Amino acid sequence: MRGTVSPKFTDFLALANSNIALAKQNNVQFTPTILRQNLDKLGALMSDSPAMSYIADKMLTLPDRTIPVRIYSPAPDKPLPVLLHFHGGGHMCGSVVLYDPICRHLASVAQCVVISVEYRLAPEYPYPAGIDDCEQVLIRYAELLGDVNHQHNVTIIGDSAGGAICTSLSMKSLTDKRINIDQQILIYPSVDYTLNSPSLDSNGTGFLLETTRIKWYFEQYFQSTDLDVIKQASPLFGAMSVKLPKTLIFTAGCDPLRDEGIAYAKALTAAGVDVEHHSFDGMIHAYMLLHDLVKDECMATYQHIAKFMA
């Protein structure tokens, strides 16, 4: 069923859809540079950026690479919960800089230490490079917090592709004892790389993120057409166990990924996992990056996260 979009997006979507139509008319092809630039433009719609007592850019140093992170704390002397943040962007786009306002809100509203991870992106670094980076930070995050007081439990959070990373790591935690996740927070997550959810058809055009672009993202990410590999990488088809972490999930009614997020929430619940699901029916994919247009919905999302973290 196609979603009914909020009138708050009327002007924004009219312009976006006009630009998409013009690009198709002129046979403009997707490239990593174009899509990264287009996503970065959404930063102009996040003008509300809370002040923060502590922000530091650090590096997690591994034998073969370094992983940049940005750390936020509203009160670095207080032992606050830790929230590990994996940004969205189709595994190809997005950055710590673009998501800076979101991480500031998370730290401020939820009163937690946020570690935002600059993981490697496709196509330069295809699957599973980005997941590997996030896994290393998850295992070794305490090394980055020497000058920040914190609690010794960890929640992971991600939107879209970041949600895919969260759920992939949660799935891996069932068999890898190095990976400890107390809770996961998923915002319009991508959990099914097979592209079979009904909302990919019903919501696949007209709502900013289009199904053709999702398919192209995944082609760059996997650089493979092996359906067994793609299905095995999809958290929706992974092992479901009561041992998976307590989960907070948000879906958007006008999102092509809506139905797979709902299916994942139902599968966790059926396995006995503690799940809290909120649906923002008039919202589109990436609404958290459109804060100035839908401030009430964004702040409601932050408040749900704060309550879940408390």
TrEMBL record:
The keyword Protease does not apply. SUPFAM superfamilies: alpha/beta-Hydrolases (SSF53474). The keyword Translocase does not apply. GO terms for molecular function: hydrolase activity. InterPro entries: AB_hydrolase_3 (IPR013094), AB_hydrolase_fold (IPR029058), GDXG_lipolytic_enzyme (IPR050300). It comes from the Bacteria. Residues 83-288 form the Alpha/beta hydrolase fold-3 domain. Keywords: Hydrolase. This is Alpha/beta hydrolase fold-3 domain protein. The lineage of its organism: Bacteria, Pseudomonadati, Pseudomonadota, Gammaproteobacteria, Alteromonadales.
